[in-house]
Design goal:
The protein is an alpha/beta fold. It has 12 helices and 12 strands. Helix content is 48%, strand content 22%.
Amino acid sequence: MHDKDRLLRTFLLAAQGGSLQKAADKLGLTQPAVSKQISALESFLECALFTRHGRGMALTPPGQRLAQSVAEQFALLDAALDTVRSAADAVRYVRIASVNTLAAYLLPPVVAALRQAHPALVVRLDTASSPDVVDQVVRGHADLGMVYDLAVNTDAVQVQRLYHEEMCAYGLLPPGAQAVPLTVAALAQRPLIVPPRPYALRRVIERELPGPLAIAAECSSVSASLDLAAAGVGMVILPGALPELAVAPRGLARFAIADADLGRQVVVIHRAGPQPPQALAAALQVIGQFAARAAWRAQ
């Protein structure tokens, strides 16, 4: 008999579901194809595994013994395969969750450098608010989190401080004019595009700028916020390290903020525990290198 594993798995699905049709639906086969496989297994074993009746089918005593044994053995086999697969993924994959602002300028060169140094590495990226990034790392849904220190309030992660991120205002500039530093008082009077709560940047803006603020729009996307600013909706406060490619083509100017500390401490977090896997260690090293460059550009 060929492919005993396939026939036994088909038999187990039929036994657990009590129906050939249910097994067929899970396998993407027709009911006659499943019935043919069961018959082939019964012929090989020289015994009936099911009794058929008007309401369906039931396991015979030999079928019951086989179903119990097969379920136990497949559970062990699948667990062993999952263990090996997880170990391989720890070498090949790294999952990074990041707040949108850091994803806009820090992650692209980090991922490019990782791929150049480790061509077999697959990087999975996800962007979210600061609390959600921390939650993803704590729950093991992300290996690394790129976030701001204000959002980290748990001992379940290890924190590596990277650099102090300086902020600028971005907006339209009249033809022939020059971008001069803005005071927080002047900035607070302008229509503003701000992230919604609970984004950390929203809390910083509300803390440092005198209210009430003239909020024109709420937007969680860096790219869309810059587009709104380019359309004249208002000014947006974002990291000063945004690449010129994201600013100049939109016709925007970069304004320094003169008299406020809108900057934030950028950190990378990962779950507390033993020595990090190979892919995670490689990502931490590259992030540290690019963080130093980002800190220099922000000065």
